[in-house]
Design a protein that fits this description.
By secondary structure, the chain is mainly beta. The chain folds into 2 domains: about 90 residues, Sandwich (Immunoglobulin-like), CATH 2.60.40; about 525 residues, Beta Barrel (Maltoporin, Chain A). Helices cover about 5% and strands about 60% of the residues. Strand 3 and strand 4 form a beta hairpin. The termini are far apart.
Length: about 750
């Protein structure tokens, strides 16, 4: 014990972490209840900002934390407001009204230590989370000139993106993807194609406040398909009193033309009650792009997207409620090359129509300083139609082909979720209890069993803080499922309910200092097979793909560790550094494999084992007007069907470099975003090797603010190195893939312009 205390003391001494915190202050007198609002230099609220109010009339001190609007309310007294130097400095204050004070804080705290809401009821600082979370904020998204979530994530090391001309962009975290990565919008799971891949390019970036990426299993809180991690997309909400609106136009030289508009309003009725709404609409048009313009088929398919997102907000005291409705529509055209035959010149057209509808009602109730409740109810619908026609290219007439070439998929899900969070006064003991009910229904001719799958789960966690520097958070989830697991009490539960395996986890956070945090975690993962994996049937002249009712659930053991250093040295200088490692051991992973070469039969099977390992580093430095971010990751996957089969392995190294510089006097900023993916090596089941060549992507743009920041103009070039396709030397494999051919990576070198007008 003495040795441990000595080691901790030595770490404190070496890092200079035991220095006394200094503070800056501002004095004011209050006659009635007063709202104090903490904002940054851009007048954006700073939530979860710690403030000390020192009474000027007695010895009483009040320690408060701003809410999601960056606000606190206090009663009639004379106070001195104190802010720790490491958190920022007061650069000015203004009297908005006799009962409202706004303090402008010049600080890097919002950038180096943002808030996170994933896996909790109340927002908390990223450094306080027992799990490691990567946060991409709206300012960064705007600097990228990103049009959707795919554009945002392509610059993040450790996140692998897959591009499909028809199916869009898919994601891998920690070497796992598809059904193993959960995509959330405001904590609500998204639904999509039958294989679980969510096309993140269909999520526009205009209404995103931030993106929270949690790598590693989150199955305890978010269910079976969160083995690889969770990506939680947080949408914007009105934060200013009155009306705000803006219009954004984007165009480039390869055929993208996008138009977005938003309007929001917040009205404060009194110091306890406020109403607000937020509405976003947009249209994205892409004419398609082909690297060989002489062909009728295009490498990147023409598409049109139309979307709308509206929310209503009501707040009264500690009661908050929001209602969100989102609608998305996409039309995509896939054309074959022309054929010359007896009837003239013909070609095949595949028309893909995708519709999304999301309705979410969230109620937050803060009973007192200790107890908080959240109720989340959501309905999600996803429809995708494929219509295949033969088109006469001379007359323009079209004829629908065989019924087996057509496909209609209707996917709907109901998600009911409740959370209770307890936080003790001295933060010695925190707890989280929750329930979740999910029902997913699929209607398609290619799935032989369309019965809905229901899941009811209870989960909870206890966060223990035996000492100030240590957090221990054990968690457990138990689920009742209509299709998977075992039924030890059929006479009680009936045949319609089965108990899934218990899912435990434990997370440990050690605060070695106010700047240095060490984290470690273990989690068990569990994923039941999907309806597609169980009941899929697609047989025609080119396909023979079948589900497998004998599949068992995937099980995994995951280990994560990280060291996180954050320090705001001054109001102009701040830095963060993180190094993390992980190990995933997956048993009975479900994969689509060739089981009968004579009939070209592909079927979902449980492979023996999969091991995914890797590490990553992330460094971010703020030097006045400079913002530099450097990331590196290395991921290795090893899989083996059984003890006698050959080991299959692939590995991917990645680096990313992002630089931003702002000239505050002129409102001009320069941005550079780049990512390099090294040579990917892999081993096939027959012992042969394959290679995917290395490539690098880079974007550069210049932004200019005009007319008191009412207009923002952005000019830039994407894909500076003109990377379009890369080579994959693997032999022909997979249901659709053809080996040795080019793999689409990005559009060619491309100039763009973006104009944002704040009305």
């Amino acid at each position: 014990m003495k040795l441990a205390r000595s080691i901790i003391f030595l770490i404190y001494f070496l890092f200079g972490l035991g220095s006394q915190i200094r503070a800056q202050s501002a004095q004011f007198n209050l006659s009635d209840s007063v709202k104090i609002r903490i904002v940054d230099l851009d007048k954006h609220p700073i939530p979860q900002f710690p403030v000390t109010l020192m009474s000027n009339t007695d010895v009483t001190n009040v320690h408060l934390i701003t809410d999601e609007w960056g606000e606190i309310w206090i009663q009639n007294k004379s106070f001195t407001l104190r802010i720790a130097k490491d958190l920022g400095s007061i650069v000015g204050d203004s009297l908005i009204s006799k009962n409202n004070l706004e303090f402008v804080i010049q600080t890097q705290i919002a950038q180096i230590n943002p808030i996170s809401i994933t896996a909790s009821v109340n927002p908390r600082l990223a450094t306080e989370n027992p799990y490691s979370v990567q946060i991409i904020q709206s300012k960064t998204i705007e600097k990228m000139g990103a049009q959707n979530v795919s554009d945002v994530l392509q610059n993040q090391s450790g996140v692998l993106l897959g591009q499909d001309p028809n199916l869009g962009t898919s994601i891998q975290l920690q070497g796992l993807g598809g059904q193993n990565v959960k995509i959330l919008i405001n904590g609500v799971p998204m639904i999509g194609r039958l294989n679980g891949n969510i096309d993140v390019s269909q999520i526009p970036s205009e209404n995103i406040e931030r993106i929270e990426i949690v790598e590693g299993p989150m199955s305890v809180v978010y269910g079976t398909d969160a083995i690889g991690g969770v990506i939680n997309i947080i949408t914007k909400r009105p934060l200013r009193i009155g009306n705000t609106s803006r219009v954004k136009f984007f165009a480039d030289l390869v055929g993208n033309i996008n138009l977005d508009g938003s309007i929001s309003h917040q009205k404060r009725i009194n110091n306890k009650t406020s109403l607000g709404y937020d509405l976003n609409i947009g249209r994205q048009f892409f004419s398609g792009f082909d690297f060989q313009p002489a062909t009728r088929s295009m490498d990147w398919k023409p598409k049109t997207r139309v979307y709308g997102d509206g929310s209503l907000f009501f707040r009264r005291g500690n009661f908050n409620q929001s209602l969100r409705y989102a609608q998305f529509y996409e039309y995509l055209l896939d054309r074959s090359n022309a054929e010359y035959n007896l009837v003239g010149i013909t070609g095949y057209n595949n028309y893909f129509y995708t519709q999304r509808r999301d309705i979410t009602l969230v109620t937050d109730i803060k009973l007192n300083s200790k107890h908080s409740l959240r109720f989340q109810n959501a309905l999600n619908q996803y429809n995708r139609d494929k219509i295949n026609v033969r088109r006469n290219l001379v007359t323009g007439s079209e004829t629908i082909t065989s019924p087996v070439d057509q496909d209609t998929t209707k996917n709907s899900a109901v998600n009911l979720r409740g959370l209770w969070e307890y936080k003790s006064d001295k933060s010695l003991f925190n707890s989280l209890l929750g329930y979740e009910f999910q029902q997913e229904s699929i209607q398609t001719l290619r799935v032989r069993n369309n019965n809905p799958i229901r899941d009811f789960a209870l989960f909870g966690s206890i966060e223990l803080n035996p000492i100030k520097q240590l957090n221990i958070k054990p968690s457990l989830r138990i689920a009742y499922n209509s299709a998977f697991g075992s039924n030890p009490f059929p006479e009680i539960l009936g045949n319609g309910f089965k108990i899934a395996p218990l899912i435990p986890s434990v997370q440990i956070r050690s605060s070695l200092s106010e700047h240095l945090v060490l984290r470690g975690s273990y989690a068990r993962g569990f994923r039941a097979p999907t309806a597609k994996e169980l009941y899929f049937l697609f047989v025609d002249i080119n396909h023979n793909v079948q589900g497998n009712t004998n599949l068992t659930s995937e099980h995994s053991h995951n280990f994560n560790t990280s060291i996180d250093y954050r320090h705001s040295i001054s109001k102009e200088v701040a830095a963060t550094f993180k190094i993390a490692g992980f190990l995933n051991n997956v048993r009975d992973e479900i994969q689509l494999s060739l089981v009968d070469a004579s009939t070209n039969l592909y079927q979902y099977i449980n492979i023996g084992k999969l091991k995914s390992t890797g590490f990553s580093t992330q460094t971010q430095i703020f030097l006045g007007s400079w913002d530099l971010s450097l990331g590196f990751s290395w991921i290795t996957n090893e899989s083996q069907v059984d003890s006698e089969s050959n080991l299959r392995r692939w590995q991917v190294p990645q680096t990313s470099l992002n630089i931003s510089h702002e000239y505050k006097s002129t409102g001009t900023s320069l941005q550079w975003f780049s990512r390099y993916t090294g040579r990917t090596l892999g081993f096939l089941s027959d012992g042969n090797t394959y290679e995917i060549e290395r490539y690098g992507l880079a974007d550069f743009n210049v932004s200019q603010k005009l007319y008191k920041n009412k207009i923002a103009l952005q000019l830039g070039v994407k894909n500076i190195f003109n990377v379009t396709q890369i080579q994959n030397t693997a032999p022909n494999s997979g249901v659709h893939a053809s080996g040795g051919s080019g793999v689409n990576i990005a559009l060619g070198r491309n100039l763009f312009i973006q104009c944002t007008v704040n009305l």
